[in-house]
Amino acid sequence: MKWLTGTTTEVLAALNDTVQLAQEDNQQVEEQVRQIIQQVIKDGDQALKTYSKKFDHVELQDLSISKEAIDLGFQRVEKEVITALEAAKENIISYHKKQKQYDFMDMEKSGVLRGQLVLPLARVGVYVPGGTAAYPSSVLMNVLPAKIAGVQEVIMVTPPSAEGISDVILAAAKIAGVDQIFQIGGAQGIAALAYGTESVPKVDKIVGPGNIYVATAKKQVFGMVGIDMIAGPSEIGILADEAANPTYIAADLLSQAEHDTLARVILVTDSVELAKQVEQEIYLQLETLPRKEIAEKAIQNHGMIIIASSLEAMFTIMNEIAPEHLEVQLVDAISYLHEIKNAGSIFLGEYASEPVGDYFSGTNHVLPTSGTAKFYSPLGVYDFVKYSQVTYYTKEALREAKDAIALLARKEGLEAHARAVECRFE
């Protein structure tokens, strides 16, 4: 792991240099994705099947997954897994239903009604990654907030494989209430959702994480459809003092490192002794980790221990990092909540381990990464609605306002605007 020490200014400068060095030229990926999207627009289902053969090494006769196949997959999953998914669903619903927003109307002035309608999106696409692991929890996290918002139809796409779609993914989709599932991955899956094909219906918004090709495709189709965010590799930041448990910290850092060789794991502390213990414990725990190869590369290439000069400096540094997941392992952790300005999801105290949020607490695990927590929020019910404004004026209310409206319109050189109001009183 890389160690950083020095003044807060020096540490922040070094972090900035690290971020800049980590940024790669993705022009080649951008061009590849652009070509894939254009091919899907041109050839529809046939392009999807061609790309499945090329990238996933699977020849598909049918892009969709039948209801019968979903039910069979559900039945094959162990009962205790179904029970756990159902419990997670209950927690996700109980948390996210509090995010639901409602219409409002006001009549603060005589003859004037103003309001806002909260309208669910009609159809949403959810991308569920394939690759090195199956993530049924991501199905629940993406689909359930959409259902709570009132989305009429949820379309799920996930990469095909020679063995078929994982049973636990199908089970999670059934539990969450997905309406249709298509076995399509990568940039071509995003293109299909954005533009529609003979089989895949066009959606209004696409959510869900994926690799660099998926992220790039989401960026390129934005405007044709809405997207949730451009997600990068997983990351965790931990704030800890000398009283923290190094075993817990090491385990939590590794919980993110095992996701991806590009995962970023950062400990910020004012205790050199704790830092040494944590580093030692990381390499000890790595030895028995099934995904050791992945986690070890992430630790070596993107792991960082930062020694801060004070508690205040620790928060300043972490707020600049703006991590996807932030654990606060300090004495009386809850008292520091309002010192946190930038973080996707916050975990307070030594027993709020990050995987609690990944699977069970009900908070969402689709989160802003790569410092975007400075301006993005976790996925929520609010991502699946749009707002329409409402205005009603009586003639008398407009008479009272018309001179001010006409004055402002002419100040902007828009004579027709002024006349549109005045003509009602001629």
From TrEMBL:
E.C. code: 1.1.1.23
A GO molecular-function annotation: zinc ion binding
Q: Which GO terms describe its cellular component?
A: cytosol
Q: SUPFAM superfamilies under this entry?
A: ALDH-like
PROSITE patterns hit by this protein: HISOL_DEHYDROGENASE (PS00611)
Cofactors needed by this protein, per the record, are:
Zn(2+)
> What are the positions of the active site?
324 (proton acceptor), 325 (proton acceptor)
Q: Which reaction does it catalyse?
A: L-histidinol + 2 NAD(+) + H2O = L-histidine + 2 NADH + 3 H(+)
Keyword entries, A-Z: Amino-acid biosynthesis, Coiled coil, Histidine biosynthesis, Metal-binding, NAD, Oxidoreductase, Zinc
Sites binding Zn(2+) sit at 256, 259, 358, 417
Query: Which parts of the sequence bind substrate?
Result: 234, 256, 259, 325, 358, 412, 417
Q: Which residues form a coiled coil?
A: 12-39
Q: What does the note accompanying the cofactor annotation read?
A: Binds 1 zinc ion per subunit.
Question: Which pathway, metabolic or otherwise, does it act in?
Answer: Amino-acid biosynthesis; L-histidine biosynthesis; L-histidine from 5-phospho-alpha-D-ribose 1-diphosphate: step 9/9
GO terms for biological process, alphabetical:
L-histidine biosynthetic process
Spell out the Pfam families in the cross-references.
Histidinol_dh
Q: Where does NAD(+) bind?
A: 127, 188, 211
Q: What does this protein do?
A: Catalyzes the sequential NAD-dependent oxidations of L-histidinol to L-histidinaldehyde and then to L-histidine.
**Family assignment from sequence similarity:** Belongs to the histidinol dehydrogenase family.
Name-wise, this protein is: Histidinol dehydrogenase
Organism for this UniProt entry? Candidatus Enterococcus palustris
Taxonomy, top ranks, is: Bacteria, Bacillati, Bacillota, Bacilli, Lactobacillales
What gene name is listed for this protein? hisD
